[in-house]
Write a structure and sequence with these properties.
The structure is a single chain. This protein is an alpha+beta fold. It has one domain: TATA-Binding Protein (2-Layer Sandwich), CATH 3.30.310. It is built from 5 helices and 5 strands, in the order βαβαβαββαα. Strands 1-5-4-3-2 form a 5-stranded antiparallel sheet. Strand 4 and strand 5 form a beta hairpin.
Length: 132
Amino acid sequence: MSNDLLIIRSTELPLETVWQRLPEISAAHKFGVQATHNLREKMESKGVPFHRECRVIEICNPSHAQVVLNQEIEISTALPCRISIYEENGRTILATMKPTAMLQMFNAPGAAATAKEVERVMVQIMDETCRA
């Protein structure tokens, strides 16, 4: 799937391996884990059958967050960065919204450089996580 708003990476590594590696690799890039979500488990706990594995990790670099929040507090609605991990056609997929694309929803031109830097680091984190 191609989408100009998303960064998507694919790997042969099992979902569980990617799930375990992502927090450590994020931390090496000064992005901490804010929350984790197992969507299948959460939906099934609410009585809604969902048979696919889909997990989401929310990560954030507080220094970068401070810069963009000082520009426009409404950007808080788009924080922290979320990376979704799921399986598709026998491969593990990592996907996230492009910070530069999300920033376009807000009137914060002074935050553009930070969004580009965050996007660059998100790509690095996802690429390193996908390496076998």
